[in-house]
Amino acid sequence: MTDQLHALHASAERLRAIVESLDATQLTERAYPAEWTIADTLSHLGSGAVIMRSGLEAAVSGTPVADGFNQSVWDEWNAKSPAEQAAGVIAADHAFLERASALTEDQIATVKFPFGPMSLGLPEALGMRLNEHAMHTWDVEVVLDPSAVLSEQAAGVVLAALPMIARFAAKDDGVARDLTIRTSDPTHEFALTTGDGSVSLTPGAGDGPVVELPAESFARLVYGRLDVDHTPAGIDAATVASLRPIFSGF
User: Fold this and answer.
1) What is the pTM for the complete model shown?
2) Which of 73, 72, 110 is nearest to 95 (CA)?
3) Is omega for the bond preceding 186 within 30 degrees of 0, making it cis?
């Protein structure tokens, strides 16, 4: 089993425990993204698990997913009640993880997974799913517990994808920067440069000043989830504040 699949199992178990603690009223309360309720967030994760399981079957069998399948899944989940969405995400997570866990070592090594316009190896695709799952689990958990953070296991997997996420989602603010982002738990370094019309985030140290952050906090920053109220103490608050507009989230 890959590190990504281990982390995804753990994230699904974390979400299951959260969901099972919720009552009907809480399901209709706002999640961290203001435009979504907790049930909406769970629906997004549940439909995503169904779609990814179908994509996995297509990747293994070589048979393309039927046209319109994704939209049909979204329509089905949008029509569910909040209680059905909550129960459904647990079942959908389980079904996807059960299928992924049954793959052979050869399949894990060779299967190519359709992921939007890209084709990813299975470990990378599982990592992308973990990114989404961990962030949206936090979106639910943090409204119940304002001190919630990503687990070190999840943060370690999310870190690997941050350069790609930044390439697609970050927006240059025109300010010239050359920073080294050094994370803890786990330890990693990234070079962050801005100011030339693009944002570059690459593994390894940069030439400029060092900014130290917990790994989970840097992951949330890049995903637009490190607002003032959910930023840990003891970091360079001014620098983090200057970076928030670059990473507005998605």
Assistant:
1) 0.94
2) 73
3) yes
* All structural domains of the chain: 3-148 (1.20.120.450), 153-243 (3.30.1050)
Torsion sign, CA atoms 135, 53, 66, 68: negative
pLDDT tens-digit series, residues 123-170: 889 999 999 999 999 999 999 999 999 999 999 999 999 999 998 899
Report residue 152: phi and psi, to 5°: -60, -40
Tokens of 3: 């590190």
- 176 touches 245 (CB < 8 A): no
Q: 179: Cβ–Cβ under 8 A, 6 or more apart, which residues? A: 191, 192, 193, 206, 208, 209, 210, 211, 239
- Measuring CA to CA, how many Å separate 59 from each of 2, 64, 92, 136, 245? 17, 8, 18, 25, 37
